What we know:
Chain A is 68% helix and 0% strand. By secondary structure, chain A is mainly alpha-helical.
Amino acid sequence: MEQVKRGRPRAFDADEALEQALVVFWEHGYEGASLALLTEAMGISRKSMYAAFGNKEELFLKVLQRYEAGPGAYVREAVRAPTARAVARAYLEGAVRAGTQPGRPAGCLGVRAALSVGVTGQTVQAIMTTWRAESQAGLRDRFRRAVDEGDLPADADPEVIARYLTTVADGVSVQATGGASPAALQHVVEVALRHWPPA
Amino acid sequence: MEQVKRGRPRAFDADEALEQALVVFWEHGYEGASLALLTEAMGISRKSMYAAFGNKEELFLKVLQRYEAGPGAYVREAVRAPTARAVARAYLEGAVRAGTQPGRPAGCLGVRAALSVGVTGQTVQAIMTTWRAESQAGLRDRFRRAVDEGDLPADADPEVIARYLTTVADGVSVQATGGASPAALQHVVEVALRHWPPA
DNA sequence: CGAATTCTGCACCAATCGGTGACGAAGCGA
DNA sequence: TCGCTTCGTCACCGATTGGTGCAGAATTCG
């Protein structure tokens, strides 16, 4: 971040701390993750956390960036698949994989943080909602291109297909949170992809 | 509840108060709904709430019963449809209708309350998870009967079909929470039901 | 070395969390 | 009318919420 490194250097690894914070936010959502829970998992004091990351909200945003680059990367990667069908499969299977990783909280951080929030977390809720809307728009644009390229029939509706896929992925995340096994969710994915294009 | 009605009668309508509490829980989830928010919406004091409903958790459970009988009734009703396909349609369209009622919070109370919860609400989270698992089991049993009756092909997997439908319904609820229109979600339902049986 | 700078640990802040004790008002049966 | 029961208001409880002020320790620059 800064090039000057005057003063006492911090005694913890900021990246490692972010990783632990990610787990806590993932598991408990934005408001459910208290400072006590977060700092305990991160192994640092409140004060160090504020000095390093500014704020609970800013910390969450940094965690979100990390999530996007890590477990949530499948969203950006899926649209780079060669065919529309491959995009759909990569997207849904990515959701299953990310939502059922052993040793990590079940489901999707984006879904868990965007639902069921009190009053103090509505800023974050809005951010998450637009965040998820953007990935849906990304899929839609990709399917528009597929129509242009003849990869999807001309009468296919990219908007509806994208909406359908994100809906299934959201459902997969909810099911994973409820304890559904990867195998069961993979079956769901197979069902969703059995007929293509779906619309 | 009680047959003896000695003493001063309560000055509020318990049913009306439950309805307002339902809205607050629906919108903010279990932990996000604070006593202050709840009692303000219900128009009664903390003390009256505790006297009438016992507890925040007990209040939520009573609200849940009310939800099951009202907006969530489509789950029980869907399995009574004559054919498997009609069951699926009733279930998914019920989810869309319940999740996009004007004047009511978007999405499904069950989904919103079961995700993203801190430490104090884990009892409720567990209840909601089993609650949703039960409705999935109800669908599965219904589809088993459909296989027995020849309404579904013998090689159809009731478990997978039920899982698929609940996954889509969960996704619909998430999408609705994010502001998706009833029309858009109805399109998703059409896509999900286009090919039947799906598995 | 000394000065400047930055980190950490502790105690503390006001606000809010879910939940109660006390007490007067209000209604019931007799 | 009286006595009993219940209700509603006010204040309060300890615990926890997100967030800081302060003092001291650690490190780099001059």
